[in-house]
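User: Hey, my collaborator sent me this sequence without any context and asked if I could get a structure. I don't really work with proteins. Can you help?
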Amino acid sequence: IPGLGHLYLGDGQAAGALMGSAGLTAGLAMSDFSDKSVQANSILALQNISFYGIYSAYRDVRNYNGNSGYSYKMPQDSLADLSYAPFKWSIIKKPEVWGGLLGAFTLASTVGYFYAKSSVALSSGGKTVPAMALPIGIGEESFFRGYLQPMFSEALTPWGGIAASSVAFGAAHVFNAQALDGEQRRRYYSLVLPFITTFGTYLGWLSYKNNSLQESVALHTWYDLIIFSVSAMATEAAICGNSRFALSLPF
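Assistant: No problem. I've predicted the 3D structure and written it out in structure-token form, which is a compact way to encode the shape of the chain:
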């Protein structure tokens, strides 16, 4: 439950902000006045609020204890740091960020070609609005690279932590294939999941190299923003009967 970890630490301000945000999104998700798209995006927002809450509580507990007994250097990014990261030139201009984005789309296009066995398509596979790219980028990077990676690294090695958290990142996307038919599901598992896991490995290396989540959040956010935006345009084109624009790579 977002905020409970901060209550335990006596940080009422952070606890209130997280609980208030979670309550608002949960209310929208369960409201009879919300359409299915609003409900789905509210659930997604609630998930990522929880993800950030887990990371920040773990970070703050370690700081409270003076990081005594820990070997992995914990990222110290605040929510404000992560929210601004995709728009900070000092972050975006780093070759590992803009180059990583180009590399990710090159690999995604290759995977998309073989997945669809036709023209390359980019799609979020649903009604995720493009603006959700930022909370998803913050939430997923906070949980997988800010929480799981340090946890696994303490038990293994830094590279072991990167590998284990990347496998978890890929496994978390298994449910994306539930609505696909048998052949599509098989291709999703054999092509798309290895790509997502590889992408997660690169994001893990970014956070380890910079001892920060800002670079990985920026890359993840811009990748998803482009994916979601193209998906929205493709959906609109399909509704309008424009069959010349139909691109689809589930992520």
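In plain terms: Confidence is low (pLDDT under 50) at residues 118-126. You can pass these tokens on to your collaborator as they are.
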